Amino acid sequence: MSELLLPPGISLPEPIQPKDEPDVDAPADDKASQLPEPTGWKLLCIVPEVSDTYENSTIVKADSYMKLEEHATTVLFVLKVGPDAYKDTAKFPTGPWCKAGDFVLVRTYSGTRFKIYGKEFRLLNDDQIDAVVQDPRGITRVGG
Prior knowledge:
- The protein is an alpha+beta fold.
- It has two helices and six strands, in the order H-E-H-E-E-E-E-E.
């Protein structure tokens, strides 16, 4: 493999070793700082946890079903709003479409998907929010 040519003064970081969970002795502030700060007009959302059993049952849902539901979910929970989100008054004349703490409805597979310690998060543009949802428990995607 050939050597990568980098600009003067720039070097690659050491290889990153992913972790499955935070250090147990780390302070809560350190663990919370692992969440990215959305930049620009982005929103940081988390995929809400869904029960791994069927309602009023002890039957466990298959791992493949749970993974599909996580990937294809249309309901997210807004954790953080970027500094420029909803600032364009021409595009958002009535103000923000949502805020941190809201459940929102988005298109299936929307946003930049990533996991932190096994939990799925999404970064979405401010205009990718389709609706604010008061109670997400009754909402399922079609085909799911």
